[in-house]
Structure formats: structure tokens, C-alpha cells
Write a structure and sequence with these properties.
Shape: globular
Number of helices: 19
Mean pLDDT: 84
Low-confidence stretches: 488-515
Radius of gyration: 23 Å
Strand content: under 5%
Structural class: mainly alpha
Helix content: over 70%
């Protein structure tokens, strides 16, 4: 257990550093190229992200899961074969797709609401091959529970992109030129991370072997995950195309539509993923454990780990909700100089609960071989998203996008939790915990609003944000401790656990979240 939390801590530190640097870079881009430039940049990367999803999104997690499965079954000879099959499969899709789009580059304007996005997309396109292979190598690190090199490479990739981006974007003569140069920086970072990951892969004495026998099981398991993520990415790409057009149809100019889209998707929505960054580190380490429990039929351990994941996700996400609800406008002004972005954050703050739960339950279900069911749920939620952005912009403006996101995350979370309950032989217990966690957000938000109204006229935006956010989060934590949802004595338990001889003997199964 001490090793588990040490690993989570390491991954979290690197992940937080990576996301924080990316956050600062996003602020820099917002000021350097404006919301219109961010909108073009975001649209181009959204379409590229769709291609990357089609190419390899299901392969890394499948390679990782099959490595775990083969080792638990004593078939270690298959591990290198499935790794090689994953690399061959992703390259076999990426290279033809890359060449097709490159030679058809003169006919791609229909993919974008703004034809200036085409050249930004094309400059990033060669990164498809490099990133596809890197994604498989990332899955190998997961399967080997070798999280340190993965975390370091991810951080260095972000640093590489930021350095290249600042050098290239500084002095750009227009929003378009700045967005184009930012695309070049993305390509440079992709090549860098691929090169570094490949070097680490061979230095770790991994090998490539004849993959012929592993293509079928790899495809059978990865295809539903790829399809699910392709639907998600397709929805994102369609949103980047359809939503600005629907805003124009609702009466906005093309420039206004692109700016609103850039403010929502390029500024506000990424901020909502702050708790997911922390949750992702926990999930990244825990999911292989859950997979081993499931295939090893360790039903009680499976129940405890599933409960642990859901409760930790709820607790951490909930702490951010009242902060964003109360201080959304201050965050928008301080970070992006945009009250509109802040208003969007306030309205969308509740989504953080569902974003976290959707991510953790999807990862757990995929690790348990439920990819096809998750795919079906993803398709259902995608229909709600497309309906929202098509019919609601004339009524809700840019908030139609929030309605779509709400439908996606709420529907998939509910369906995932139902399936997870059916799948676990020993049923996880978390409903009462979830109700208490959510209900206690209300008094914390009321406390925060009272503080904000008292302090804002006196202390100004920055000091009000710092004071109110800390006191609101602290007040909520006190409520959680009073309700028995949060245990501050974890350090004492770790000291006791050091005296216990066997790390797998059942001792040390408690965490900061009570089971």
C-alpha cells in the first residue's frame, strides 16, 4: 500500500506540473494570438485528435491489459508479441491515412468552419505517425507499471512544446500566423516524445517479436475502445465544425462565433479538467490493480479497489465545485481577462463531478473487458451532444455547448455505474457516500458566496479569489471530516503499516477515503 501511494504521488506531481505548464502556455496563447487564434488552433487540433483517436486510441490500454492478463496466466512469452502487434497495427493505419490526407490537402476545406484551419492542421499532420507509435509505448509503460519514465516523458513533451511555441509564436503578425506557428510547436513536441520513448523502451530491454498470433486478440479487444473514443473524438470534431456554423446561423458573425468557441473550448472547458488531472494519476496506478483483481478473481479486493476509485473521485471533484461556482468570474478575469469565460465556469462547475466519474468508471470497465458496452453508452451520449449543439444555439447561444456536455457526462456516468454494479461479483457500496458528498457542496457554496460578496468590494479580484477559494475548500473539507467522509490520519496508518510484514497480506487497505 505504501508503494501504491508513493507511485500515485510521483505520477501526480509530474502530471500536475505538466498540466500547470500547459495551463500557463494556454494563457500565453490567449494573450499572444487572441481568442480567434485559439479558436483556429483548437479546431485544427480537434480534427487531428479525431484522426489520432481512429489510429490508436484503443491500442495502448489494450496492450497494457493483455500484458497484465498474459503475465497473470503465466504466458510471458506473449508479452513482446502483443507489443509488436500494437506498434504494427497503429502504423498500418496511421501511414496510409497520413498520405491520403496529404495528397488530398487541396480538398480539405469542407472539414473546417474556417478554411484558415486547413494549413494549421496540415502542419501538425506528420505527427500522426510519431504519436501513434508513442501511444503504444505509453501502454507498455502502463503494462509494466513503469510509471516514472512515462511521467517524465509526458512532462518533457509539454516543456518542449512550450519552449518551441513561445519562440515561434512571439512576434507573429496575425492571429492566423500565431496559430500556425503554434501548430509547428505541437509537431516538434510529438517528434521529441516519440524519440525519447523509443530510446527508453529499448534501454528497458523490451524487444520486438513476431506479432502474427496476437493481431486477432488485440483487434478484438481494442476495436470497441477505439470505436468508443472515435465516437467521442468525432463528436468533438463535429462540434468544432457544426457549433460555430450554428452560432453564425443564430446571428453571430464568423469572427464572433470562432471567438465564442475559443473562449468556451479553448479556455473554460480545460479548466474544468483540473480535478481530473489529479484523479487521472490515481486511476492510472489503480486500474492495473483492478484488472489483476478481476482476472485473478480476487473479488473482495476488486470491490474495495472499485469503491476506493469512486469515492476518491467524488471527494476530490467535489472540493473544486464550490470554488469554481463561487469564484468562476474571478478565475476568468484573472486567467484570461474574460468575464464571459468566468460566467461559463460558474455555470459548468457541477460538471466536474460527472467528468471525474465518467473518466474513472470508463477506465475501470475497459480494464475488465467491458469495452463493447461502454462503446454503446458512448454512442448514446454522443447523440445528445449533437442534438444540443444543433437545436439550442438560437435559444442558449454558447451555453448550448454546456447543455451538450452535461448530457454526455451525466448519461455515460449513470450507465457506467449501473454496468459496474452488475459486473462486480461483490457489489461496491458508495451511494450513501455519494449523496453526502454532493449535498454538503450546497452549504459550502453558500458560505463561499457570502464571503465573496463581503470581500470583493474591499479586497479586489485577486485577493478575493485567493481568500474565498481557500476558505471555501477548507470549509467543505471540515464538513466532510465531520460527516466521516474524509480521514486525516492517513500518515499515522502508514507508520503502522511499515511494521507489518507482508504488503499483500490484507493490511494497509485503508486510504484517505474510508471504504
Amino acid at each position: 500500500m505504501r508503494y501504491f501511494f508513493k507511485t500515485v504521488a510521483i505520477v501526480t506531481v509530474f502530471s500536475v506540473c505538466e498540466k500547470f505548464l500547459g495551463f500557463l502556455y494556454r494563457i500565453y496563447l490567449s494573450h499572444a494570438i487572441g481568442t480567434e487564434g485559439v479558436g483556429m488552433y483548437q479546431v485544427a487540433l480537434s480534427v487531428f485528435g479525431f484522426l489520432l483517436t481512429v489510429t490508436c486510441s484503443g491500442t495502448p490500454i489494450t496492450v497494457s491489459r493483455l500484458m497484465t492478463k498474459y503475465r497473470s496466466e503465466g504466458r510471458k512469452d506473449k508479452v513482446n508479441k502483443v507489443i509488436t502487434a500494437g506498434i504494427a497495427l497503429t502504423l498500418g493505419i496511421a501511414l496510409p491515412l497520413l498520405l491520403l490526407l496529404f495528397f488530398a490537402r487541396g480538398k480539405l476545406s469542407f472539414l473546417f468552419a474556417d478554411e484558415r484551419c486547413v494549413s494549421i492542421f496540415l502542419v501538425v499532420l506528420p505527427g500522426l505517425a510519431f504519436t501513434s507509435v508513442y501511444s503504444v509505448l505509453r501502454g507498455v509503460f502502463w503494462g509494466n507499471k513503469d510509471f516514472l519514465p512515462y511521467s517524465v516523458i509526458e512532462l518533457l513533451e509539454e516543456i518542449c512544446m512550450i519552449i518551441a511555441g513561445v519562440i515561434l509564436v512571439t512576434g507573429a503578425a496575425s492571429a492566423y500566423q500565431g496559430a500556425f506557428r503554434a501548430g509547428i510547436a505541437v509537431l516538434i513536441s510529438y517528434i521529441f516524445s516519440f524519440s525519447l520513448a523509443a530510446a527508453v523502451f529499448f534501454l528497458r530491454k523490451n524487444k520486438l517479436q513476431n506479432p502474427r498470433t496476437e493481431f486477432r486478440p488485440l483487434l478484438a479487444s481494442s476495436a470497441p475502445v477505439t470505436a468508443m473514443r472515435t465516437i467521442n473524438s468525432l463528436a468533438g470534431s463535429l462540434v468544432s465544425i457544426i457549433f460555430p456554423l450554428r452560432l453564425v446561423a443564430a446571428g453571430f458573425s464568423r469572427s464572433q462565433a470562432m471567438s465564442l468557441y475559443g473562449a468556451a473550448v479553448g479556455q473554460a472547458i480545460p479548466l474544468l479538467f483540473v480535478p481530473t488531472t489529479l484523479i487521472g494519476s490515481f486511476t492510472l496506478v489503480l486500474v492495473p490493480e483492478i484488472s489483476e483483481d478481476f482476472y485473478g478473481k480476487r473479488n473482495l479486493s476488486l470491490k474495495n479497489n472499485v469503491e476506493k476509485a469512486i469515492k476518491f473521485t467524488l471527494l476530490l471533484s467535489a472540493i473544486f465545485v464550490p470554488v469554481f461556482f463561487v469564484c468562476g468570474e474571478e478565475i476568468g478575469i484573472l486567467v484570461f481577462g474574460s468575464p464571459e469565460c468566468g460566467n461559463y465556469l460558474t455555470a459548468a462547475s457541477f460538471l466536474m463531478l460527472f467528468m471525474g466519474l465518467d473518466g474513472v468508471t470508463t477506465s475501470i470497465l475497459n480494464s475488465m473487458g467491458k469495452e463493447k458496452k461502454v462503446l454503446m453508452y458512448c454512442a448514446i451520449s454522443g447523440i445528445f451532444m449533437l442534438a444540443a449543439i444543433w437545436f439550442l444555439p438560437s435559444v442558449m447561444g454558447v451555453y448550448a455547448l454546456l447543455a451538450g456536455y452535461s448530457a454526455v457526462y451525466c448519461v455515460t456516468t449513470a450507465l457506467n455505474l449501473i454496468l459496474l454494479h452488475k459486473t462486480c461479483p461483490v457489489k461496491p457500496v458508495y451511494i450513501k457516500y455519494a449523496l453526502k458528498t454532493v449535498l454538503l457542496i450546497i452549504p459550502a457554496a453558500a458560505f463561499g458566496l457570502m464571503l465573496e460578496r463581503m470581500l470583493l468590494p474591499v479586497m479586489g479580484t485577486l485577493l478575493t479569489f485567493l481568500t474565498v477559494s481557500v476558505l471555501t475548500a477548507g470549509f467543505l473539507c471540515l464538513l466532510y471530516m465531520g460527516a466521516g467522509l474524509f480521514d486525516v490520519n492517513i500518515a499515522a496508518r502508514f507508520k503502522r503499516n511499515k511494521k507489518r510484514p507482508a504488503p499483500g497480506s490484507g493490511a494497509g487497505n485503508k486510504t484517505a477515503v474510508k471504504n
